[in-house]
């Protein structure tokens, strides 16, 4: 995992180096002023030395200082911005999973009926229409026309509803489609017939015997799902003017604020590595066959 | 006798894109209290559908019960709602399924799976239910039941899982237990244990059992009465003795004749020509008429009613009509021709002069991490030209691995395989490997997955010829394919079709034709018949025997079905845990088994003969007696000419003494 992290850090660092332009490309600045700035931020040194310094600092927990906010530490910026993004991401993931699973199960049980088809049409729309379109539509109808919910900013729970919905549409659609396929397969398994032969009602059969088995493959897609949620936040936060990490990220790219870009990228990769780890652990929790301690065969 | 369940004119259909498939077409029978009724039939005969209909577990759609009555406790279950059925399922009628590997929920502890129905039907607390589950596990013979309660299914072996399934099924003392091929997926010795368990439980709990199977040996072992199903109908029903000793329906004759009998010797198995009818358009009249050599004109026009043979014995064949000619069933059925064992042995000794294949100390280990699985652990045997060498053993004993290692599908860990005195596992002869592949061919177990579904039959068969450059022109190639198809009993027209258009038996014939295409000398047949129905098995075995005679082929026949192996093989090697424990002429092996494992294996095979089954005693093999790496390692020693047993020096002397005493 550490290796993964190091590779990502190195890779982003040199990618930054190859980028054209510099944060201080302002015509109003004189050459000597620029030189001073370069010196101050350590940009006058050759790239390998910058790299070594940067990597050494990372392990001290120091991600450098921002260019655009005049020397504010990057870790401060991330810390300040992470709150809103985390709330938004977690809400979308939880709501998306719950609604998606329920929708998928209903579609599987009512296989080949109008309900099934309706659910799948919704899922396809959710997958194919980009989330900023939903965001725009929601802002217009719910926010502007109906005046039910605020269209932008971040000043309380009601401000998070619209962005959460726009973000979770994709999650719902993906999970629902997966759940339906998996559930249909599981429902055709012998142990489901066994459960029915015990006289259990359909709810018990599906919930007790079906769900857990169908959920195993779902967990696999949770990893990539989180990533797409992250990229989703970049745009959605911008649209709803949420002061989150994604919004900051976009702003930093616009201003060539390398340390912030680097810092946020590294933060995202740590997050992703963490998610993958959690997914692996969840596997063991849900599927006893790959539980390490359960590996004793008689 | 009290009738516990009565089925009247049951009809079940499945809606498919091609139309309505009538899987069960008017089945009537009853089940007495405390009896075991066996329903036998080949795949597609409707026996499983019938049993699932009794609990209304037919997936709907596409399946539906289109007519008839199922009378249980005075109610007609056909009219019951889903809610009412849920009360019956698991409490009054319960079911055991075929494959214990898939019929348990892999993500739930076995304890929870057992107490589920106890809580549901007997309204007990979780604690009480748990106590009951422990008792149940004890009853079905699972050691340490308290501990095992919290184990997951994958922590049990196949036989143990089936015991768990049985514990689940009997948890609420059901009146009727439906067992749908409960032992088909298990090894013979495990099968014998499960059958014993079911019989004991049935006596203790006075349950009635409907036992569905295709294995007549199992029927003879366990059943009180038997119903024979064919094409969605019961064609014959009666007491087990009546069915086995006085069968009336030609289909029953065929089924009984198709099973090789361990105690007797016959030249050719009775086969039922053709394959079962397509139930999309069931034929008029008797569905069996087309495959019936005694069919009369009326058989093609009118369905035969059930004729009464005795108070308990009925059969649906026009042969029983007073106007029809009296036909005596084929005598091979009961009086097999006795070729004296000595004569046969002579015949074989004459054959076995030239060694074709020598396997010397062959080892095949598989390692996964630090775990080393010794699949084949130092085995030695020779195969002589023109003979059939049988390799038997239970699943996991390494018999298939042996076959594959010989043909170098795996690189052997150690040892030599000499084919015509050339070591095939020598890297230096790799160049000759192609030549070798032409001489040694393989027939695989599963006729469904061993044929490429995207290739025509002609291409499948001719692929080997193309590789070895055996056909110089397209015409010659096609001519050879036609010839091969006819050799294995198929038609020329089949050449341009795809595998999915064929039945299992036909596919296995294609597999044989493919193996024959390159004119091999030696064929390794890895369980070639175990995926086939009884009557089809006999067809394929007869074909293999015929080809051997005509082409002078040598076979290595790998199987777990001991009666078939005995029937086809000249010599047999018994494998256990990667080693050969006994090797002898097949007659000698069955008459005079010496190794404890061979004895237990032979005693576990159910024979299609109710009388012997009733008095049979099973010999148990104590695994702990098997060499565990301490003390003197038993090795194969020749105790008698051609009879080798794995034993220690001490055992060897005592066996010798016994022989001398006789």
UniProtKB/TrEMBL annotation, chain A:
<dbReference type="Pfam" id="PF00528">
    <property type="entry name" value="BPD_transp_1"/>
</dbReference>
<keyword id="KW-0472">Membrane</keyword>
<feature type="transmembrane region" description="Helical">
    <location>
        <begin position="161"/>
        <end position="179"/>
    </location>
</feature>
<feature type="transmembrane region" description="Helical">
    <location>
        <begin position="260"/>
        <end position="283"/>
    </location>
</feature>
<keyword id="KW-1003">Cell membrane</keyword>
<dbReference type="InterPro" id="IPR000515">
    <property type="entry name" value="MetI-like"/>
</dbReference>
<dbReference type="InterPro" id="IPR045621">
    <property type="entry name" value="BPD_transp_1_N"/>
</dbReference>
<dbReference type="GO" id="GO:0005886">
    <property type="term" value="C:plasma membrane"/>
</dbReference>
<feature type="transmembrane region" description="Helical">
    <location>
        <begin position="82"/>
        <end position="105"/>
    </location>
</feature>
<dbReference type="GO" id="GO:0055085">
    <property type="term" value="P:transmembrane transport"/>
</dbReference>
<protein>
    <submittedName>
        <fullName>Peptide ABC transporter permease</fullName>
    </submittedName>
</protein>
<comment type="similarity">
    <text>Belongs to the binding-protein-dependent transport system permease family.</text>
</comment>
<keyword id="KW-0813">Transport</keyword>
<dbReference type="Pfam" id="PF19300">
    <property type="entry name" value="BPD_transp_1_N"/>
</dbReference>
<dbReference type="InterPro" id="IPR035906">
    <property type="entry name" value="MetI-like_sf"/>
</dbReference>
<feature type="transmembrane region" description="Helical">
    <location>
        <begin position="214"/>
        <end position="240"/>
    </location>
</feature>
<feature type="domain" description="ABC transmembrane type-1">
    <location>
        <begin position="82"/>
        <end position="283"/>
    </location>
</feature>
<feature type="transmembrane region" description="Helical">
    <location>
        <begin position="117"/>
        <end position="141"/>
    </location>
</feature>
<keyword id="KW-0812">Transmembrane</keyword>
<keyword id="KW-1133">Transmembrane helix</keyword>
UniProtKB/TrEMBL annotation, chain B:
<keyword id="KW-0547">Nucleotide-binding</keyword>
<dbReference type="GO" id="GO:0005886">
    <property type="term" value="C:plasma membrane"/>
</dbReference>
<dbReference type="GO" id="GO:0016887">
    <property type="term" value="F:ATP hydrolysis activity"/>
</dbReference>
<feature type="domain" description="ABC transporter">
    <location>
        <begin position="357"/>
        <end position="602"/>
    </location>
</feature>
<dbReference type="GO" id="GO:0015833">
    <property type="term" value="P:peptide transport"/>
</dbReference>
<dbReference type="Pfam" id="PF08352">
    <property type="entry name" value="oligo_HPY"/>
</dbReference>
<feature type="domain" description="ABC transporter">
    <location>
        <begin position="5"/>
        <end position="256"/>
    </location>
</feature>
<comment type="similarity">
    <text>Belongs to the ABC transporter superfamily.</text>
</comment>
<dbReference type="InterPro" id="IPR050388">
    <property type="entry name" value="ABC_Ni/Peptide_Import"/>
</dbReference>
<dbReference type="InterPro" id="IPR003593">
    <property type="entry name" value="AAA+_ATPase"/>
</dbReference>
<keyword id="KW-0472">Membrane</keyword>
<dbReference type="InterPro" id="IPR003439">
    <property type="entry name" value="ABC_transporter-like_ATP-bd"/>
</dbReference>
<keyword id="KW-1003">Cell membrane</keyword>
<keyword id="KW-0067">ATP-binding</keyword>
<keyword id="KW-0813">Transport</keyword>
<protein>
    <recommendedName>
        <fullName>ABC transporter domain-containing protein</fullName>
    </recommendedName>
</protein>
<dbReference type="Pfam" id="PF00005">
    <property type="entry name" value="ABC_tran"/>
</dbReference>
<dbReference type="InterPro" id="IPR027417">
    <property type="entry name" value="P-loop_NTPase"/>
</dbReference>
<dbReference type="InterPro" id="IPR013563">
    <property type="entry name" value="Oligopep_ABC_C"/>
</dbReference>
<dbReference type="InterPro" id="IPR017871">
    <property type="entry name" value="ABC_transporter-like_CS"/>
</dbReference>
<dbReference type="GO" id="GO:0005524">
    <property type="term" value="F:ATP binding"/>
</dbReference>
